[in-house]
């Protein structure tokens, strides 16, 4: 899967977790930065046992960590200089930038999930701890109907959202699923402007 991501999305993507086992024998993950292993029952339950790196995966994890660190520091000149200095002072061994900064800079991939729910909690923790909030992002140009205006993330600002899925329910009719990805809020019985259709629409009124 990592190879597919590198070929189709970005050749700079690197794994943060390595799988323990594969296919029907897939039973856990190893974090390449911490070396911690997470073993699951594989029955869909949330029970997980945390432990040290498995002996037969030590070389693979070390190689993956080296690749992750090198790829991450390439995006930050200050971090790159610190990494090279620590590597020289340690006689060629890898430098040790903070895990948090590495995760924020590096492109990561979690090989878990699936029916066994393996890796779900590690993925959610990574999103909460390391992914930027909208308020950490740079201002960006709004959609074509507001061309030339730079908007900043603001929950009290004008509503800006994106319909990511449309389905037809035999009892309710057409349903549009909206991601409020940038600004404002969306409530029931609210008038919004549909950029694609060039007209205003109303959300479904509340059932009260």
Describe this protein's structure.
The structure is a single chain. The protein is of the alpha+beta class. It has helices at residues 2-8, 58-73, 77-89, 99-105, 120-130, and strands at residues 17-20, 28-31, 37-40, 48-51, 140-141, 150-151, 160-169, 173-183, 191-194, 199-202. The strands form four sheets. Strands 1-2-3-4 form a four-stranded antiparallel sheet, with no helix packed on it. Strands 5-6 form a two-stranded antiparallel ribbon. Strand 1 and strand 2 form a beta hairpin. It is extended. The protein starts with a helix and ends in a 6-residue tail after the last strand. 15% of the residues are buried. Residues 104-109 have low confidence and may be disordered.
Core attributes:
208 residues; alpha+beta; 4-stranded antiparallel sheet; two-stranded antiparallel sheet; 5 helices; extended
Short description:
With 208 residues, the chain is of the alpha+beta class.
